[in-house]
Design a protein that fits this description.
- By secondary structure, the chain is an alpha+beta fold.
- 37% of the residues lie in helices and 20% in strands.
- The chain contains 5 helices and 8 strands.
- Strands 3-2-1-4-8-7-6-5 form an 8-stranded mixed β-sheet, sandwiched between helices.
- The termini are far apart.
């Protein structure tokens, strides 16, 4: 490990955000994966199959951006390429968080290609949004066990809409990112609040 202290700090941040998201019901069972950049070449990421409500230092491993495992005996999530693609394409990204809330899962099955979010004050918590009078199209990608193909599809969407700050996978969950773990956590909170509002609005409008 090039700098054990940096790894230790990022691991502690990922453990904290894992506990936080689990406490909110956004990471049931062993779902979701969380990562943070260590430097230009490496990230820390959760070990596959770890319960995020019980996450500790043994549940965080190091990888290089080419997918090489740097922590012996550990295996990352099958969805790791969705993290690595973001770090490779944008050096400003410092953390990527993936949650599995009920609201994200249900809405992603109903929304089609994009979930439209508009006229919510909390939209202003997302980058580049200055007013609630905004219509945000949160993309929904079909679930795909071929993660390389899915990562390419997301990357192509980012080429078309570089200001994208999150997306849904149908029947699966939410991905978002930020310059560090704290910023990515704020975006998770904003998106999850918006998804809950949208779920309640739809259910109460029937």
């Amino acid at each position: 490990m090039d700098d054990p202290e940096v790894f230790k700090q990022r691991a502690a941040e990922l453990i904290d955000v894992g506990h936080f998201c689990f406490s909110r019901g956004w990471l049931p069972a062993t779902s979701g994966n969380l990562s943070a950049r260590l430097d230009k070449r490496r990230i820390a990421i959760t070990v596959s199959g770890r319960h995020k409500g019980e996450l500790d230092a043994s549940g965080i491993m190091a990888m290089d951006l080419g997918g090489g495992i740097l922590t012996a005996g550990c295996r990352p999530s099958a969805e790791t390429e969705l993290h690595l693609m973001l770090y490779r394409r944008d050096p400003a990204i410092g953390a990527v968080l993936h949650t599995h809330s009920v609201n994200a899962t249900v809405l992603s099955r109903l929304a089609g290609d994009a979930l439209m979010l508009s006229d919510y004050e909390v939209l202003k918590a997302l980058p580049g949004i200055e007013t609630h009078k905004t219509r945000l199209a949160l993309p929904v990608f079909p679930n795909d066990q071929d993660i390389g193909r899915l990562a390419l599809e997301v990357e192509q969407a980012l080429e078309r809409t570089p200001d994208l700050s999150g997306y849904l996978i149908a029947g699966h969950g939410l991905y978002t990112w930020g310059s560090n773990v704290a910023e990515a956590r704020r975006r998770i909170e904003a998106f999850e609040f918006l998804l809950e509002c949208e779920t309640l609005t739809r259910s109460m409008s029937r």
